[in-house]
Amino acid sequence: MLLEVKDLGIAYGKAEPVVRHVSFQLEQGEILAIVGESGSGKTTVIRAIQHVLPGGGHIAEGQLLFEGKDTQKESAEMHRMLDGKEVSMIFQDSGAMMNPIRPIGQQFRDYLSLHGLTDEKEAHERMIDMLHMVRLPDPEQILKSYTFELSGGMRQRVGIAMAMAFHPKLLLADEPTSALDVTTQAAIVKEMMEVRNRMNTSIIIVTHNMGVAAYMADRIMVMRQGRMVEYGKAEDVIYYPKEDYTRMLLSAVPRLGGETA
Ligand SMILES: Nc1ncnc2c1ncn2[C@@H]1O[C@H](COP(=O)(O)OP(=O)(O)OP(=O)(O)O)[C@@H](O)[C@H]1O
Ligand SMILES: [Mg+2]
């Protein structure tokens, strides 16, 4: 088992936990979608997995096991694994996470060297390979570009390329398509599916879009007010939802890029 989350509870500062009793398992290569209303705790859950909770956020209850190892046991090795080598994250707008006044290539190279890939030639090859993989035309030119010179979809492809640079086993994606128009949204969703198919990467995707969840996920978790209200195989959740809340989310499914999901 790649990831086991057992009765997870997460609190910010000294306040009561905002997330409680979250449990699920993820096999290598599986895709889990987390859906639910704003403030339900989706981002909190995936940040907890990578141990990057802001504002005094911490795991208050339960366990997180990555390949059977307790990720709360602090060690340099565990830190390195969670921070890009084995687990990496992409965000709603990868461009906004980058420095607007430095070329993308310099920042990509910094990221690689921070994670131990310091050889100039090897780093360059890795960057070009990854940009090719996400189907960006003219990778050499992309490396020289600034974020503002790329479209939203291109920036997300760069984000995926960087996140996948060390072939992590788990990719965490926090609404990676929400900032994009529907056509680009479909292209990025397909790109992530291909990454999974080619590298057998597990993905946890947070999305407001049930259409994206239905298209991508093997399993779906529905969250509401910090609790998981529904969790199961995607087809069960979609065709036989147990909760009215899930039915409500399903009744407003936007179609993916105009295609039938
Ligand atoms: N840095 C923080 N400090 C204190 N409380 C926080 C912090 N971040 C989130 N919270 C609280 O945790 C709860 C869950 O928030 P979270 O951001 O995980 O929701 P979400 O499901 O990702 O929402 P959205 O769909 O709007 O992104 C909310 O009640 C929120 O107010
Ligand atoms: Mg969020």
Descriptive key words:
six-stranded mixed β-sheet; binds adenosine-5'-triphosphate; single chain; 24% strand; 3 domains; globular; 261 residues; 10 helices; binds magnesium ion; alpha/beta
Description:
The protein is an alpha/beta fold and 261 residues long. It folds into 3 domains: 1-29 and 47-81, no CATH class; 91-170, no CATH class; 217-261, no CATH class. The chain is 38% helix and 24% strand. The protein contains 10 helices and 10 strands. It has helices at residues 42-50, 76-85, 104-114, 120-133, 139-144, 152-163, 182-199, 210-216, 234-239, 244-250, and strands at residues 3-12, 19-26, 31-36, 57-66, 69-70, 87-90, 170-174, 202-206, 219-224, 227-233. The chain has a 6-stranded mixed beta sheet, with helices on both faces. Helix 4 (120-133) crosses helix 6 (152-163) and helix 6 (152-163) packs parallel to helix 7. The model has no long low-confidence stretch (mean pLDDT 93). Magnesium ion (MG) binds at residues 42-43. Adenosine-5'-triphosphate binds at residues 12, 18, 36, 38-44, 54-55, 57.
